[in-house]
């Protein structure tokens, strides 16, 4: 008996994909968005969906399962981390005092990712709330060249940084999911 699950995919059309095109909620068919802002928003939306897809169908124990010691990395930790990061990004675009941390001190987002359904539900709710709040704050600034906050960060830079953060963590989610139940696919 091995603790390494057998690799598998749900896709039948393209065996290296996560799911079949007709079942994929990411809109990859048709014409791409026109303009820089809609393009950036589309990429961000698709990475957010990808992260959720990598977590679908798992129970609290599977979501909280750590990668390899000593790392506290888990899918649940990624959900919590990205909620914390969304909140932090709002601090970048304001001159106000920073918002309080959602989960506490450094790495508390990962360390507190325990196999408890209530923690899972809270993580999903926190992430949705923080994404919506950051999206709303940025919607007031459609000029990608506008500089915001104490450090004068450009809206474009913030959007690209958000895409980079989700893309990097979707790569982590690929590996974490494969370790949990063997499911693979881009």
From TrEMBL:
Tree of life domain: Bacteria
Pfam families found in the cross-reference section: MST
Region (Disordered): 1-37
Gene3D superfamilies: dinb family like domain (1.20.120.450)
SUPFAM superfamilies: DinB/YfiT-like putative metalloenzymes
Protein's UniProt name: DinB family protein
Taxonomic placement: Bacteria, Bacillati, Actinomycetota, Actinomycetes, Kitasatosporales
